[in-house]
């Protein structure tokens, strides 16, 4: 049996994975006696925190990011935007976006005063209308623990963008998570079907 997936109507790139978490993005406090700077900061991902990304047939499938996953990642030109789309409001290349890998995860600090869209986004983040972070990336290496149904991302190949996100109407996080778990789920289903066939054969043998 094949696990069917729903077509993703969101224009996000299908060759990338997207993860949206409840990690807070906030307006940074300005320096003392200084005018308010339009700077936001937060974590796009946290290490070694297993998160339930998808549920199937009453079972929870989790994912976590190893604390060494970003050690070789290409983060040479990462952009900051809203919901992974629209105009770029900060960028590592022009030093308006700073990414720092620390013991907690991928820390993001972005200066948003350079564009009209960035200034609007800053106001919405400061007002609490937008308070979640996300990132888009490709995986170089991962491992799956079938007993705990947990996928561990061991190496990230490239980070494409970090984004401030709202609660999307269509959960593309679940779509990309489903894609990541499909092979393992299909293995589980085939193993269960094989076990059921063996059970029926044993019953027929002894009846």
Computed over alpha carbons, the radius of gyration is: 21 Å
Q: What order do the SSEs take from the amino end to the carboxyl end, as H and E?
A: EEEEEEEEEHEEH
Number of strands: 11
Question: Roughly what is the average pLDDT, rounded to an integer?
Answer: 80
Low-confidence stretches: 1-11, 169-175
Given helix and strand content, the structural type is alpha+beta
How would you describe this structure to a colleague?
With 207 residues, the protein is of the alpha+beta class. The chain has one domain (17-206). Helices cover 22% and strands 40% of the residues. The strands form two sheets. Strands 1, 4, 5, 6, 7, 10 and 11 form a seven-stranded mixed beta sheet that branches. A four-stranded antiparallel beta sheet has the order 2-3-9-8, with helices on one face. The model is unreliable at 1-11 and 169-175 (pLDDT under 50).
List the helices and strands and how they pair.
Elements: E1 17-21, E2 25-27, E3 39-46, E4 51-56, E5 59-65, E6 79-82, E7 85-91, E8 97-101, E9 105-111, H1 116-126, E10 132-145, E11 150-165, H2 172-206
Parallel strand pairs: 5-11, 6-11
Antiparallel strand pairs: 1-10, 2-3, 3-9, 4-5, 6-7, 8-9, 10-11
What key phrases describe this protein's structure?
four-stranded antiparallel β-sheet; alpha+beta; 2 helices; 207 residues; elongated; seven-stranded mixed β-sheet; disordered N terminus
């Amino acid at each position: 049996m094949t696990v069917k997936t729903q077509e993703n109507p969101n224009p996000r790139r299908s060759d990338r994975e997207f993860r949206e978490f409840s990690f807070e993005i906030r307006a940074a406090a300005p320096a003392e006696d200084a005018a308010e700077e339009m700077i936001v900061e937060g974590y796009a991902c946290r290490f070694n925190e297993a998160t339930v990304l998808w549920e199937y047939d009453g079972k929870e499938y989790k994912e976590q990011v190893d604390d060494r996953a970003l050690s070789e990642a290409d983060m040479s030109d990462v952009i900051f935007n809203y919901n992974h789309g629209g105009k770029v409001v900060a960028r590592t290349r022009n030093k308006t976006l700073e990414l720092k890998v620390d013991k907690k995860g991928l820390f993001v600090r972005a200066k948003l005063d350079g564009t009209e869209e960035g200034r609007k986004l800053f106001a919405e983040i400061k007002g609490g209308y937008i308070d979640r972070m996300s990132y888009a990336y490709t995986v170089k290496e991962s491992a799956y623990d079938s007993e705990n149904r947990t996928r561990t991302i061991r190496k990230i190949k490239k980070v494409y963008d970090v984004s401030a996100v709202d609660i999307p109407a269509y959960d593309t996080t679940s779509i990309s998570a489903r894609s990541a778990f499909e092979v393992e789920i299909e293995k589980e289903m085939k193993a269960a079907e094989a076990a059921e066939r063996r059970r029926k054969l044993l019953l027929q043998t002894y009846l």
